[in-house]
Amino acid sequence: MRYSLSKKLIVSAAATMVVITLLVSAGLAAVFQWEPEILLKQEMLRHVDKIKEKMRFDAAGKLTGVELNSKMQLLYEALKDDSIYRILDDKGAVLAASDGAGIPLFAKGTRFDPKTATESGLVVRRSGLTLHVFTQAVFRNDKTYYIQVARSERMHQAIMGSDSASFMMAAGVAVIVAILVFTGVVWGTFNRALRPLRVASDAASKIEFNRLGSRLSTVDVPQELVPLIDAFNKALDRLERGYRLQQEFLATVAHELKTPLALIRGQIELDGMADRTLLLKDVDRMARQVHQLLHLAEVSDQKNFVFEQLDAGEVAVSAVEHLERLADRLGVRIVLHSPARQVLLLADSGALFVLVKNLLENALHHSPAGASAVVTVTPEQISVRDRGEGIAADHVPLLFKRFWRGPNRRDEGAGLGLSICREISHAHGWRLLVKHDQRPGAEFIVAFH
Fold first, then answer.
1. Where is the protein situated, by its record's location annotation (predicted)?
2. What is the pLDDT of residue 314?
3. pTM above 0.70?
4. Would 209 be classed as within a structural domain?
5. What pLDDT band is residue 334 in, cutting at 50, 70 and 90?
């Protein structure tokens, strides 16, 4: 069963959110459980900042009191023993106190020392209660003041227990709501973002072999999907070009076979006066064309190749031996230059044989009697050179065109040999090059790299 991309992304994102929330919640719960002093200090320092903001002075710059909001004022009035603040001058004298006391908060048997009072929190015993005291220096009207805030241990424990339970409950509700909202938003976003892709998919499903000129539109398509649509359109370009070439090829094949068939029919209609030699010649020509057409169809399909390690020099020797009788009949000598050591290639043995054979056969037919055709094998390439009249510059672009025949050929081939060579080279990742101005002759090179 195929998975849904939108569902998979939504589930992954929601799961990530849950994991992150649980980790944060676990971290805060650990702080509540094992490091409550951290939260206590942060809360006390927040009170220091509030008191600092609410300090009031007269025209002479003397502190007159602290105007806290009603909530904080109620806290310090109702819980005088459990929640205390005091404001000291730079000498340690108490200028204001929530409980009306006139001495600073310090450990028993010690005196207030401004230099050390702000370094860390202080724990003192007062009226049977354990107090956590934090002192911070503040600057107002070019003077230094010290604000002390104290909270009892029992009050801290009560608040922590209540806050922890409330926090966990609120965190759980927040996670559920966040997941539901997030899922709804992402689901709607994906449906909207993928709508152009569904439109493009519907358009693609309507493209038939006789409508390859159609292309998918990239209008309103998300930027991330544009390369996919462009790649599909380029694939259609290649298919359309291949289809047109196939149609042209079929038309050319029909034309090439029509002439010999008409000649054969004319010979047969002579009522016994047909020239047996001419008939056989026409049949042989058609057989050669059909054979090369089958060969071309075979090498045009990559799956027909079986790649293996082989010696290119050994394959070249086989091709030379195969064409020795043709060379003798044409009066052309074949010269093979091959290194003593093996030239190992990853290639299809039969295809490489056909490649060398076709190039060499082409060279033999273009070389004059008494000349030589040279085959050279190196680790980098295989080259075949003839000693004929060469190739005109305006004929070079036509060399690999199917059914094209050069004006200087002495055979009656189908004009498919070089097309087959090009297909074999392309399938192996090789380059088929031609040097047409060798003077005399031409040279075809199969470059392996």
1. Membrane
2. 93
3. no
4. no
5. very high
- pLDDT for the residue 225: 75
pLDDT exceeds cutoff 60 at 57: yes
Counting other chains too, the contacts that 370-374 makes at CB distance below 8 Å and 24 or more residues apart are 370/331, 370/332, 371/332, 371/333, 372/332, 372/333, 372/334, 372/335, 373/327, 373/332, 373/333, 373/334, 373/335, 374/335, 374/336, 374/337
The verdict on 288 and 308 lying in the same domain is no
Average pLDDT over residues 425-447: 86
Q: Is 333 exposed, middle or buried (0-12, 13-18, 19+ CB in 10 A)?
A: middle
CATH number at residue 66: 3.30.450.20
What six digits make up the tokens of 93?
């004298």
**121 and 260 housed in the same domain:** no
- Any domain includes 23: yes
Last residue of a domain, one of 173, 203, 233: 203
In the chain, the number of structural domains is 3
Residue 214 covered by a domain: no
Average pLDDT on 416-430 reads 84
pLDDT > 90: what percent of the chain?
14
User: How many CA atoms are closer than 13 Å to the CA of 365, on its beta-carbon side?
Assistant: 17
Between strands 83-88 and 94-97, the pairing is: antiparallel
Contact 385, 443 (CB under 8 A): yes
Cα 358-362-367 angle, rounded to 5 deg: 150
First to last CA, the chain: 44
CA within 13 Å, CB half, 298: 14
* Angstrom distance (rounded) from CA 406 to CA 1: 58
194, 238: one domain: no
Same domain, residue pair 99 and 182 = yes
Contact at 8 Å (CB) between 434 and 396? yes
Measured CA to CA, the distance from residue 343 to residue 30 in angstroms comes to 71
Q: Domain of residue 269: give its range.
A: 225-299
Please write the tens of the pLDDT for every residue from 132-179. 888 888 888 888 899 989 888 888 777 665 555 555 566 667 767 777
Give the residue, 29 or 371, on which the prediction is more confident: 371
**183 phi/psi in degrees, rounded to 5:** -60, -45
CATH number at residue 294: 1.10.287
